[in-house]
Each structure stands twice: as structure tokens, then as C-alpha cells.
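User: Please run a holo structure prediction.
Assistant: Happy to. Please share the sequence and the ligand.
User: Here you go; the ligand is SN-glycerol-3-phosphate.
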Amino acid sequence: MKFFIDTANLDQIREAQALGVLDGVTTNPSLMAKEGISGEENIKKHYLDICSIVDGDVSAEVISTSFEEMVKEGEALAALHPQIVVKVPMIQDGVKALRYFSDKGIKTNCTLVFSAGQALLAAKAGASYVSPFLGRLDDVSTDGIELIGQIVQIYDNYGFKTEVLAASIRHAMHIVRCAELGADVVTCPLAPILSLLKHPLTDQGLEKFLADHRNAQQG
Ligand code: G3P
């Protein structure tokens, strides 16, 4: 399973990279805005900065919503760096754009996916990744994890190459459940990844080992 970090914050990306478990980065317009990145040139530079930190796919989302504009914008993003994956929303023109990019050999991430039907369509259109937003489904009393299982099953049934990129991950158990279900990738902020390493018995055990060692040196 691949771990992507879902942020445009360069420090967080560096920290995740230093941990040695990072496989890529996903961004979206909200995450870029949160870092105060605006203007075409600054946005491009920021994507290049991210690519220089991590050795893996970096999703850059189009802002356009018409097929023609998405193609123009996506081609410009893809030309920035070989690691760039064009992130396209699950709308009618987005599906056309996924097919266009797929035929051109440009990697894509179909975003804002909330149903198995949308995920099926994204795979049919040749998306490289599909991003079901499981936390946002949980937020509206719908089981996001169940959707991950459905998509994995459907893709397995037909041998679709599209990778299931579980997004909108909120905590460690989301990651563990996605791993059990066979999601190809999880993307989340650094905190849920760091939560995976926490266990009180680990801390207690280490404290005791170190205390026993100290006592033995004194005796
Ligand atoms: O980047 C897409 C997705 O991961 C957003 O997550 O936390 O805004 O629901 P969130």
C-alpha cells in the first residue's frame, strides 16, 4: 500500500519524506489556498518545489470545469514535471478529460468521488487513480469504508488498472481498514500516519527496558 500526504505544506511534506514512508503527494485548490499560494507562476513553482522533495506522484488539480479548458490546463500541469498527475473532478466534462489524458499517456487522479458508480465510470475513462472521499462520507452518516471495499471489489472483478486512492482520511483506523480492504493508496495529513506508530504498551515497554538497563549499570 502506498502512502501519499494530502497537503501543500512543504514542511509537512519534508517531514513525511524524512520518515521514509512517503510515496507521493496529493493537493487540491483548498490545500493550495491554505498555504497562501496564488497566481499561475506561484502555483507552478509550488508544484515544482513539491516534486523536488518527494520521489513519487504529485497530484495537481485543474480549476477549469469545461473539457477544453481542463485539457489546456491539465496539459500545462503535466508538462511542468514528469511526477505531476492531473487531478480532474468527477463531472461529465471531467470524464471526457480523463479519457483524453489517458489516451495521451498523461496520468490522472479522478477526484470528488462519493459512489461506486462514479468510481466505475472513472476506471472506464482510464483514470490512473480514483479518489473516494471516505471521511466526508462518514461526516454525512454514510459508511466511507464500505465504499472503499465496493470499489476494490468492482475493480478486481474486471481487472481495471485504476488504483484506488482512499482520500479524506481522518485517523489511523481509516488507514488500517483501507489496508485490510486492499486500497492501493491512502492520502492523508501527516497526523494519521504518525498515529499508526502509537501504542501505550510500546511506550511502557520501552520505559521499562531503559529503566532495567540503567539499574543494571548501577548495580
Ligand atoms: O484532497 C482530497 C481529500 O483528501 C480531502 O480531504 O479532509 O478535505 O475531506 P478532506
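The CA atoms of residues 9 and 35 lie 6 Å apart.
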